[in-house]
Structures are given as C-alpha cells and as structure tokens.
Specification:
The structure is a single chain. Helices cover about 55% and strands about 10% of the residues. The protein contains 13 helices and 8 strands. Helix 12 crosses helix 13. Pfam families: Phage_int_SAM_3, Phage_integrase.
C-alpha cells in the first residue's frame, strides 16, 4: 500500500491508496488533526507511517479471509444457529424471518466475504431498505424494522470480530434512520362504554372486557388458564402467554417479573369467567370426543385455542362494522391506562396495574394521556373564548347603534 501527505483546509491529511471490494483504487483521506505548518511536518509524516502499517496489516487479513472462503452469508447462518440456543423462541422466529425475507435475498447475489463487508456496503443496504425495502414493493421499511435488521448484522459481525475473522465491526460505523416516536391511540371512558355496548352480543366481548379492564397484552389474555383463576380467593393471576411470529408459542413465562401479577376478581370479571366455565361445559357435552381439551379460558366452541392474529383481525373488523374509531387490539391496554387516568390514579398506580417493569414506560404513556387532556382544555378554551368574543362584539355593536 502507498500513501502521501496532503494539505486541505490548512490541515495535514494522510491519503491512502486503498482498494474496494472490486480491487479498484479508492483513496482514503484521514485527518491527522495537525495544522499544516513546518513544526508539525515531522509528526504528520510519522502519522503517515503508522497508518500505512495499520492498513497494510488490515488489507493482509482481509485478503486472507477472502481466500479462506468465509462468506458473510455463512457467518449469518452460524450466528443464527448460536442465537437459537440463547434467545426466546418467538424472538428467534423474528430473527429467522427477517434474515430469510430481507437480508439473504439482498446479500446472496453479491457473494461477499466477511472482509468485503464495509460500512459503505452496510449503509447502502440500510438506505435501500429504508427507501424501498418492503416485500410488497409499496415503499420502504420503518426505522424500527431496520434496527431489527441491524441487530442481526451487528451481532453476526461482533461474533466474527471476537473470533478474529475481521479487524473491526463495520456495523458500528453506519448511520441508522431516526426512529420515529409511535403515538398510540386509545379510548376514553365514554368510548370504552360505547365499545362495550356496541359489542354486547358478540362472542369476542368477554375477551375485550378482560383485556381492557386489566390492561392485558394480547398474549396474556389468550394465555389465561383456569389454573390461574381462584374463585374462592377472588383472584386472577397472569403467568402464561400465547404468542406468535411464524408459529404459535405457548409458555409459562411472562415478559418480565412485573408482568406476572395477580389481580382481584372484579364482579364483572367473575360473571364473565363463570359464563365461560358454563359455556365450556356445554360445548364439551355438545362436541363429545371431538372437543379439544385444554386449560385455556377463552377459546372456540370446539375447544380450539383462538389464533393470535385472528383476534386482532376480528377486532378491527368489528370496530369498522360498528363505525367506532379504529384502534389496535393492543391499544385496549392503553385505553385501560386512559380510564385509570380519568379516574384520577397517578403514575405509580397505573404502572402497578399495567405491570410495567420500568416507570419510564408508564411515564411515556402518562405524558401522552396528559397531552390528550391538554387538547381537551385547548378545545374548551377556544370554544369559550370564541363565545366571549362574540358577546363582546355584540355589546360593542349595540353601543354604536
């Protein structure tokens, strides 16, 4: 490798004659941080020698890796195999799906070795996915989705770095799109009441009520089991979850310790659960041997557990049918916080009820609820102000008559 000292903007720069993945010359400018004056020339030349030595060593290692045949795709497969033993099953499903649908189709045609993966290569991937990376071809991926992609890529390369297969992690030198703050929607007390009234004859209402009253995640309400219901003590314990990415996973494990909690059985909840118990007994007699035995509280008439995605789709369809504001099923959890807020409960109370592990999570939601209240105050102020202004104008006109 060759290089030279150059002066730009009155600063000494080292210019290295590097090569890209296609063996084409690509000058690399590195600032020495030294002012271009005679007293700094010796130090600048020493910096040139050090950088030449460093980059010659890096090029040699990269060439070795190219010749060894270690490909970027192979390294991702290796990391996925390791991740499968370390992470939650649903988390792994997400990693595998992202790699299969996005990362592999993009990088496989490029046939890159580990040494070929530079910050520029990764930045081009990020920019492409952000602009037009959706599988359906309808635009780009969100900043949050791209961050998930980079978790896989960064950890793959971090593993390669730990094994001395690369000199540095190029994923640490890219710029990710700014993550936009997601503003969830939710129902007020009045809207929750309207929801319950509109769906009073729908089979999904018991699930919606339990979800809203206890502020549960979808995985928790679908994972509710009879072994967690104590009619004598009047308690409902959250300890089992049902989740899905590419396939449904049921487990006796909640998201965190605070997520595993016990609620008092409110009278309305007791009525819902007793009705579900009676319905289950009737369905067992009706379906006989065809009934699917399990311990879940909420399920289809034949005992089959509800599909995770089916509940979400059904909920949206019901809202549209009854001309109600369309929110996500998960927003019923936020609606619970909205109801508690309107009832006068503070941040700590809402945190405990929702089972947040970190009060910051509740604080973000609490701030959003507070903003909604400020909007109501603003609307009220504007209405009253307009009314007062009209009266003032009327009085002024009467005086001038």
């Amino acid at each position: 490798m060759t290089g030279s000292l150059q002066v730009k903007n009155n600063k000494y720069y080292v210019v290295l004659n590097c090569k890209d993945g296609n063996k084409k010359r690509k000058p690399k400018w590195i600032s020495t941080g030294l002012t271009a004056e005679k007293s700094n020339e010796r130090r600048a030349k020493q910096k040139l020698k050090e950088l030449l030595k460093e980059y010659e060593k890096l090029e040699a290692e990269q060439e070795h890796n190219r010749q060894s045949g270690i490909s970027f795709i192979d390294q991702i497969h290796t990391w996925l195999e390791q991740a499968k033993m370390r992470v939650d099953e649903v988390t792994f499903q997400g990693y595998e799906l992202t790699a299969t649908q996005h990362i592999f189709p993009y990088f496989e045609p490029l046939k890159l070795s580990l040494a070929d993966v530079t910050p520029q290569v990764l930045q081009e991937y990020i920019n492409f996915k952000y602009k037009s990376g959706r599988i359906d071809g309808k635009g780009g991926l969100s900043a949050q989705s791209i961050q998930i992609h980079m978790v896989i890529i960064r950890r793959t390369l971090a593993d390669a770095l730990q094994k001395n297969l690369i000199q540095y992690n190029p994923a640490d030198r890219v710029t990710l799109p700014k993550k936009e703050r997601f503003e969830s929607d939710f129902y007020s007390v009045a809207q929750v009441h309207n929801l319950f009234m509109a769906l009073q004859d729908d089979p999904l209402l018991p699930i919606i009520k339990v979800t809203t009253i206890y502020g549960l995640r979808r995985s928790k309400v679908l994972g509710l089991q009879w072994r967690s219901i104590d009619f004598d003590k009047g308690t409902v314990t959250i300890r089992h979850t049902v989740t899905r990415c590419t396939k449904t996973v049921a487990k006796n494990k909640t998201k965190n310790n605070s997520s595993r909690r016990t609620y008092p059985m409110l009278p309305e909840i007791r009525a819902i659960l007793l009705a579900a118990k009676e319905s289950e007994a009737q369905n067992k007699r009706l379906f006989g041997e065809e009934y699917i035995e399990n311990d879940y509280v909420f399920k289809k008439d034949n005992g089959e557990p509800y599909g995770v995605d089916a509940i979400t789709k059904r909920f949206k369809k019901l809202l549209e049918q009854h001309h109600l504001p369309v929110i996500r099923f998960h927003d019923l959890r936020h609606s619970c916080a909205s109801v508690l807020y309107e009832m006068g409960y503070d941040l700590k109370d809402i945190k405990e009820w929702l089972g947040h592990s970190d009060i910051k999570m509740t604080g973000n939601l609490y701030a959003h609820l507070g903003f909604r209240q400020k909007q109501d105050i603003t609307m009220s102020f504007e209405a009253n102000f307009s009314s007062a202004l009209e009266k003032t104008l009327e009085k002024a006109l009467e005086k001038n008559r």
